[in-house]
Amino acid sequence: MEGQRTYAIIGGTGMEDLFPQAPMETVSTAYGEAVLYLPQGKNYYFLPRHGKEHHLPPHRINYRANIAALKKMGVVAAFGLCAVGSLREELRPGTFALISDFLDFTKSRPTTFFDGEGGQVRHLDVSEVYSEAMNASFERHWGHPLPRAVYVATEGPRFETASENRFYASIGGDLVGMTNVPEAPLALEAGIRYSCLAHIINYGTGIHQKVTIEKSQDLPRIVPTLDGVFAQKMEPMEAPFL
Ligand code: HPA
User: Cα(120) to centroid of ligand 1, in Å?
Assistant: First the structure.
């Protein structure tokens, strides 16, 4: 298996140290450096987006370097893991959902590899940012279906106000988080198939009286499930530009 890494897991808050023994490798890209981990006996890289010690806040993560590094290493599919707040009573803390689409309320981040340099203007087709085929594969290996949810990307690092969350829910948002934009659209631009498992750890501000954190007991099942997903061969894809 060594030397055959064509997939990646991108870990988020509370899921940064899934492979404590894995050696690391620093990869240089046109956008800066990214640190990847190489779990033994696996066919994927592990990239903790906040750093292994959780030292990078969401707005300081070098998303372009991360995705460019995965691309450079030959990754064709990546599964993101992220911690989120819930805007819906029925999406309870301590459970999981798969992201189906996003609403972008970030403010200060480079969100594209195509910002006009070198005369390249490209418009991304975002009708399927999150691979439904990988979502379905995840559910098969997980053992039961998971809800699909619309992710609202906020700038952070503060949580949202109650008024912001009322607004986000009213326009179709189900979950709030701070990292999936631009990670998901950059993966699509790079032609890397992408899905994201959302670990719901709290109700968003204003949804319940007090914001408290609750983690799932099923966190240890994520890696074996992704081992199953990545046991199936996935082909490289063309980035969908209009
Ligand atoms: N808001 C934004 N990001 C989050 C939250 C939240 O409530 N919970 C975990 N990440």
Answer: 35
